[in-house]
Input
Amino acid sequence: MSAALPTSSREWHLVARPHGWPKAEDFALREAPVTAPGEGRVLVRNLYFSVDPYMRGRMNDVKSYTPPFKLDHPMEGGAVGEVIASNAEGLAVGDHVLHGQGWREYADVPAEHAVKVDASLAPLSAYLGVLGMTGLTAYAGLFEVASFKEGDVVFVSGAAGAVGSQVGQMAKLKGASRVIGSAGSDEKVKLLVEEYGFDAAFNYKNGPVAEQLREAAPDGIDVYFDNVGGEHLEAAISSLNLHGRVTVCGMIAQYNATEPTPGPRNLALVIGKRLRIQGMLVGDHAALQPQFVQDVAGWLASGELKYRETFVEGIENGFDAFTGLLRGENTGKMIVSLA
Ligand SMILES: NC(=O)c1ccc[n+]([C@@H]2O[C@H](COP(=O)([O-])OP(=O)(O)OC[C@H]3O[C@@H](n4cnc5c(N)ncnc54)[C@H](OP(=O)(O)O)[C@@H]3O)[C@@H](O)[C@H]2O)c1
Output
C-alpha cells in the first residue's frame, strides 16, 4: 500500500441516452471519492484512456454484444495507468497496467482485470492502439476473417483511422498487390499514399465512392475491410472480384442514425461473384494475441509499420474527444491524455 492517496477522482457519466448525435448535456463530469483498494485490487492513476466508435452503441439501451452504459455510472473503456496503491499479489506500486476502467482519473481495478504493460517496450498509449485493441482488430480482421493472401487487392475504408491505417500497411507488408484506402480529407489521403505506402487513396467526400473506387482499382478488389458501411459497402460489392471477401468490422456512417439505414442495393451480386461477407468482433480473436504482438512489435521496431495518435489533453475534454472521433478529427488512434 502507498501513503498519500488522492481523495477524489473526476469521472464521466452518461446521464441521458443520446438520440442521434451525442450532445454535451447527455454527459456529466462528476467527482467521486477515492478509497484504498480492497483485497485483490489496485488503485490506478489513469494516464491515457481510449475513446472508440463502439462506445456510441453502448450509449443506447439495446441488447448487444456489450451491455449498455448504465446511466449515472462512470463510463468504461480501455485505459492505461500507473498503480498507485496495491492490495494484490503480483502488482506493485509503479507498475503500468492496461484495464477497462477508462473515462476517469483514478480506477479501482480487480487485479485479474489489469494486464501489466511495459513502458520500455512501447509508449504506453500504444497499448490502446497499434499494440492494443484496434491493432488486434486490424490483424484478425485482415488475416483471419478476410483470409488475406499474397497478391490480393485490398480496399479499406476509414483508412487513416486506427484500425484502417494498420490494415492497409499490414496488407502491403504481407504482399498485397495493391492497397486502396478511403478517408475523409485530402490531408488524410496524402498521408495514406506518401507515408503509409498505399498504392491509391481517395477522399470519399469528393465524389461518389463507387466511381472513385473503380478508378483506384481498375481490375477490381479481392478484399474489402469495412469500417464504414453504407455507400462504401455498396461500392465495394460492385468492385469485388470473384470469390471476394469482406470483413465487416464497423459501420460508423450509421452509428448516429435515427432511422433504419438502407442496405446495399446490389446485394444480389454476392451470388454470382460467390462473395463472402463476414462480421467480426475482436473479442473472438484473443488466441491471435501472441502472434499479433510478435509481428506488430517487429514491424514497429524495423520502422516498416507507422502509426499516428491524436491526443486530446485533459479529462474535461473527454466528451469532445469522443464526438471529435465520430467527426473524423483524429488521424490514427484517438486518445485522451491525463499524463
Ligand atoms: N468489430 C470490432 O471488433 C471492432 C473493433 C474496433 C473497431 N471497430 C470498428 O472499426 C471502425 C474504425 O474504428 P477505429 O477505432 O479505428 O476508429 P478510427 O477509424 O480511428 O476513427 C473513426 C473514423 O471514422 C471516420 N468516419 C466518421 N464518420 C464517417 C462516415 N460517415 N463515413 C466514413 N468515415 C467516417 C472518420 O475518419 P474520416 O475523416 O476518414 O471520415 C474517423 O476518424 C469503426 O467502425 C469501429 O466501430 C470494430
Observations:
- The longest helix spans residues 289-302.
